[in-house]
Automatic annotation (TrEMBL):
It comes from Amycolatopsis azurea DSM 43854. This is SAM-dependent methyltransferase. GO terms for biological process: methylation. The keyword Transferase applies. It comes from the Bacteria. Residues 50-136 form the Methyltransferase domain. InterPro entries: Methyltransf_25, SAM-dependent_MTases_sf. Keywords: Methyltransferase, Transferase. Pfam families: Methyltransf_25. The keyword Heme does not apply. One of its GO terms (molecular function) is methyltransferase activity.
Length: 206
């Protein structure tokens, strides 16, 4: 079992940056019921929704309970299993691989900092533009203002076996930087908001 899998089960884990800095991952939020700002994302979804990097499925399941058609996608088989255990649908797949309903999703979720997937937010948003339909939205969770766009090599800790410790690229995007990124793809910022200590934006496809 990898560090990420243990995090999905509620064990403390973090990102270790190449600089030596550590960023704790919000495993308590991943495994809890939706709270602490999640309603900003959930309330914005009124049609078929793809939850990218769904983790243990708290948002995918919450949407299903609301009667919204939803599908989680994650590269972790443990995440997919946990999402299924919540009674929600999920696929064990990379978001850059072929996915069901390409070009027809009404909404896409990039919660919990998943704008950082792949370490290239512009490439990721371009992929979102392929998945969402015209007039559809991408709901993005972002860093606070003043952070800009940051990319770094990271690895998960604490490592415990040969499958852990591999370096990969991750990215962070401050809320003030999302408009420029959106303009470089097929999106515009429809709104941005803060709920408690979390920041969100809604990107609408032209």
């Amino acid at each position: 079992m990898t560090v990420f899998d243990r995090g999905l089960l509620g064990h403390r884990c973090w990102l270790e940056l190449a600089t030596g800095e550590r960023v704790d991952l919000p495993v308590d939020r991943w495994t809890a019921i939706p709270c602490d700002g999640d309603d900003v994302l959930l309330d914005a979804c009124d049609g078929p929704t793809l939850d990218v990097g769904c983790g243990p499925g708290r948002l995918t399941a919450a949407l299903s309970e609301r009667g919204v058609a939803s599908l989680g996608v994650d590269i972790s088989a443990t995440a997919v299993r946990l999402t299924h255990a919540r009674g929600a649908a999920a696929l064990h797949r990379d978001v850059f691989d072929r996915l069901p309903g390409e070009g027809r999703w009404r909404h896409i979720l990039l919660a919990d900092g998943n704008i950082g997937i792949g370490g290239d937010p512009l490439r990721l948003l371009s992929r979102m533009a392929e998945l969402v339909g015209d007039g559809g939205t991408v709901l993005v969770e972002l860093d606070p203002p003043g952070r800009g766009v940051r990319q770094d090599r990271v690895r998960l800790g604490p490592g415990s076996d040969d499958t852990d410790g591999a370096w990969f690229t991750w990215a962070w995007v401050g809320v003030e930087a999302i408009a420029e990124l959106a303009a470089g793809t097929a999106f515009r910022v429809a709104w941005a908001t803060r709920r408690d200590h979390r920041w969100f934006a809604c990107l609408e496809k032209a």
